[in-house]
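anyone seen this seq b4? input:
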Amino acid sequence: MISQLSDFLNLSEKSIENLFYTIFTILLFIVIRIITSSIIRRNIKDEKRSYNLRKTFTYVYSALLIYAISSVWLNGMQSIGTFLGLTSAGLAIALHDTIANLAGFIFIETRKPFRVGDRVEINGHQGDVIDIRLFQFSIVEVGNWVDADQSTGRIIHVPNNMVLKHPTANSHVGFEYIWNEVPILITFESDWKKAKQIMIDILQEKTESLSQGAQNQIRRAARKYLIVAGKLTPTVYTSVKDSGIMLTMRYLVNPRMRRGTEQKIWEEILDAFEKEDKIELAYPTVRYFTQENHQSS
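predicted toks r here
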């Protein structure tokens, strides 16, 4: 049969044998990968851990598959080394971006600037990481035309080499909280001191518990990063604007809870201000003053 295929395909019998071995090896590795993935899904309920294990086994199986096939066609490790040595210079030029993406993948896997599930921002793109592969990682976009860092529903595929070229912001590594500010403008005639106290009370009720969690995280993060914590308790700052007195609420929040907490705070403030006769929300206004000239005869 091999000799017949050799004549039909105009290939040597050795090449036909190598071809059969290659097909068999690929099918074997596919079956092993499917079985491994099935076992992991069945025994590990944590989706994130299950995903990471399946990805790890995929990389291991892929490396073994490449080695097995290369050993057949290139006649062992010595031939592989010779082949790689002769072609490395050409590949470095022809596959510059591909090699850069592989280098980025190695950087991501070794230095861990982010992991699956983290919220990151790189080169103007912000989102939650949902997949990391050899040449690119994927994020579910947040922000853009949607307010308060909520998902737009789009998936953005980012080349791995971007982590080597651009700064990467991670909202979850080291310190999992961000500062959020809610500016509230009241009229000059309002009792701003009472308004400020109402806002402080609301902040302490809604966000005080986050400060303790942030303190604990800073202590853990300080073992790896030089993080100096300032004032972590919620506060309200006072400033004057053209149309009134600006009271800015500042508090710590989980990035994914920013819009929800802001909504609760606003609802509490609107209810509280509605009960006060001396507190009114301000908005841009224009006031005109006229001066009449009286002439005496």
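Helices lie at 2-9, 13-43, 47-73, 77-94, 96-111, 162-165, 192-221, 258-274. The beta strands are 119-122, 125-132, 136-142, 151-159, 168-170, 178-186, 235-241, 244-253. kinda curious what u guys think
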